[in-house]
Design a protein that fits this description.
By secondary structure, the chain is mostly helical. It has 14 helices and no strands.
């Protein structure tokens, strides 16, 4: 039941559902249990009602939040909306699909944050990702009442007019509100710091995956 045992649990012929149950119980009982990318696919074999309470309780502590989004999309709750909106910043097709599916199971209220995240994701996707682009544009049309299809440029023009503050953010490649960050950073006391807390965040926020080790790309 250790996290590294998931490597064996994912091999052919292994009783995966039984293994998934063991990992879930360990995760539920041990606050320091390190959920991994090899465990998440196993959890998909268990009923949503068994898995999702643990997922929501531990959200933000695992560094595997994007990988967990497809689990949430199976049976989303209203409080999961922000998780799907954040997930739309991913570059992984499977994660983006899960976010749109999860949002579609929630109410179709007008939400500038959601519209911005969908338009940014739509603009980043390739024309070859036809099904994903169609799903994103359908969600946008449902929540905004606009019939603009899958043309991201038309959606950007609409966003700049309907929500200028979000339109400006799209001019930044990462969609970041630079001015607000500069204001926030200016108030920080840079003589103070906690290296251990920073190290923990580096792992929890998944920075470690791209910025450490031999395959480091950051």
């Amino acid at each position: 039941g250790r996290p590294d045992h998931a490597l064996f649990a994912n091999t052919a012929g292994f009783p995966k559902e039984r293994a998934a149950r063991i990992f879930l119980e360990r995760w539920k009982a041990d606050a320091n249990f390190a959920i991994s990318g090899n465990i998440v696919p196993l959890l998909e074999m268990l009923p949503a009602d068994d898995v999702l309470p643990v997922v929501r309780k531990r959200w933000g502590d695992t560094g595997q939040e994007n990988a967990l989004l497809p689990l949430l999309a199976r049976k989303p709750e209203a409080n999961d909306r922000s998780k799907f909106i954040d997930g739309l910043n991913s570059v992984q097709t499977s994660v983006l699909q899960a976010c749109v599916q999860g949002l579609d199971k929630l109410d179709a209220k007008s939400d500038a944050n959601e519209a911005f995240a969908l338009i940014r994701a739509l603009h980043r996707t390739s024309d070859k990702q036809i099904a994903l682009r169609k799903a994103m544009s359908a969600r946008l049309e449902k929540t905004t009442g606009q019939a603009l299809g899958a043309d991201s440029k038309r959606w950007i023009a609409w966003l700049e007019k309907a929500h200028p503050e979000f339109g400006k953010r799209l001019a930044n490649p990462d969609g970041v509100d630079v001015a607000k960050w500069e204001q926030r950073l200016a108030k920080l006391d840079w003589t103070q710091g906690n290296a251990d807390a920073g190290k923990a965040i580096f792992h929890t926020a998944s920075c470690v995956h791209c910025h450490s080790g031999s395959p480091a790309m950051g």
